[in-house]
Amino acid sequence: xxxxxxxxxxxxxxxxxxxxxxxxxxxxxxxxxxxxxxxxxxxxxxxxxxxxxxxxxxxxxxxxxxxxxxxxxxxxxxxxxxxxxxxxxxxxxxxxxxxxxxxxxxxxxxxxxxxxxxxxxxxxxxxxxxxxxxxxxxxxxxxxxxxxxxxxxxxxxxxxxxxxxxxxxxxxxxxxxxxxxxxxxxxxxxxxxxxxxxxxxxxxxxxxxxxxxxxxxxxxxxx
Length: 223
Hints:
Blueprint: H1 22-28, E1 33-35, H2 38-56, H3 59-67, E2 69-71, H4 72-78, E3 83-85, H5 88-95, H6 110-124, E4 128-134, H7 139-158, E5 162-165, H8 177-187, E6 197-205
Parallel strand pairs: 2-3
Antiparallel strand pairs: 1-4, 4-6, 5-6
Helix pairs in contact: 2-6, 2-8
């Protein structure tokens, strides 16, 4: 897995229709539960999309993301630690005034509608999901889940499989409760009786190669 560290990426792009090969799925199931059945995949896509829309139309949670958005190369280079909105297509939208910070907080704006359309298309193009659950929800459970997820992502990278966490339905605030319950009813054992907790949910599939995310230079983090 060590050899895959520098190649690991999160792919926020539509995946192809190609299903995971049996041998590939078998290897990845060492680290997470895979959802491969088309009907269950379709049900999860619906939950994930509804949860994302709930977050997008809930200003307190959505604005947390907007505050971290970096619009264009200038903002990305100045603060390479947020949600980078760069590349030719997005830069064109930014220069034309379609994609703006103000617009991302206004559901009536063309930029916000464009964001919704992009995410709808991306989630719709998902052939499989990976799920990590734990027996409870202690801090040790959460750390163990993080380890498993990282190993899943590294193993997937080595096998040429793209990974994209979609964790909105796992967030714990009132407006998200019905999606949280739905994903636990579907994926966790005994959740309603205080059983398993779904710690991670993510898309799996074959997506395009993506660039490395911007990062602060290592020397800038020294004190």
